[in-house]
Amino acid sequence: MPIETLLPDAAVDLVRRVTSRRAFLRTASFTAAGAAALVACGKDASATPELAAAATVDPKAGAPPAPAATPASIRAAADAMDAMHEKGIKAFPAKTAGLGNQLMAPKIVNGVKVYDLTASEIQWEVSPGQMVAAMAYNGQVPGPQIRVREGDRVRINLKNELKQSTAIHMHGVELPNDMDGVPYITQPPVKPGESFTYEFTAPVGNSGSHMYHSHHNSATQVGLGLLGAFIIEPKVPRAIENVAHDYVLILNDGMHGFTINGKGFPATQPFTAKLGDKIRVRYMNEGMMIHPMHLHGMHMTVIDKDGWAQPQPWKCDTLNIAPGERWDVIINCNNPGTWAFHCHILGHAETEHGMFGMVTALVVSK
Ligand SMILES: [Cu+2]
Q1: How far is the CA of 345 from the centre of ligand 1 (A)?
Q2: What percent of the chain is modeled with pLDDT above 70?
Q3: 57 Cα–ligand 1 center, Å
Q4: Which among 111, 212, 210 is positioned nearest to 156, based on CA atoms?
Q5: Which fold has domain 242-366?
């Protein structure tokens, strides 16, 4: 028996209004979430007439009647979705202009390793055809990779060509206070057009995976690309550090969307190894969200957290990288093939349009 027959007229009217409001809220919130997801993956919700129409729901009109699904229409819709997924995978690794995280050779001046970093505003191709406003060190997102050794004297000349002040913080490196790079706490901000020199000795006993980044208006400046890897190699490496490849994988989730080394899938670079190789992956999270990185086909052996050796190496296949953290893992590449390698917050990696963002692959060749 329908509920209306048991209720007085006023209650029936109320039930109808509440039901239709709930239906509207469901439709509207779904549409808003869908539109937000599309914007997050670089697609404009108003780009197609269907989405533009869906984005402006008329509460009085109600939902249009859905055409009855047939086996053929279901198959056609599945094929259309699959085609978008296939297109993305086939495009990988897609060529884009600019590569970040490129190893920088220092100038040696009287035994000091000197790095010149210029911060400027650029356009950056984050995924094929998607140009974004960026802030970059030496035109790269992430900035150039700096590798020094414990005990090295290091000088970093920062030149500010931005339209706002900035400063560089060496994240994880235990330095004298005046080299910590935090405006108004340890130094004045470096104004537009000005320069500042950081000079220090890479502390002995503080080796490992560290980072450098802006510590001024940092949600914006780091989100737009003012970041890079700062690696201090140990004087005496451990046996477990003897690897065929040493890869850096910097995660970010700012205004460029979800990126690995400054690119979103399918423009991310695959990591490669030969069967039997041991490789090292240094995860660094420069974003503001957690990213549980998951590798298919092989486990990871965690050796270091924030540059500090673990009491004992431990194994996993999904490793959560929180903002500011660095985790170093060893992968014994004993399983040939192309293996998916991605953030396991699935909304950072895939939509109905296919994979995007924090997705790459580990390719183990025979
Ligand atoms: Cu993620």
Answers
A1: 5
A2: 83
A3: 31
A4: 212
A5: Immunoglobulin-like (2.60.40)
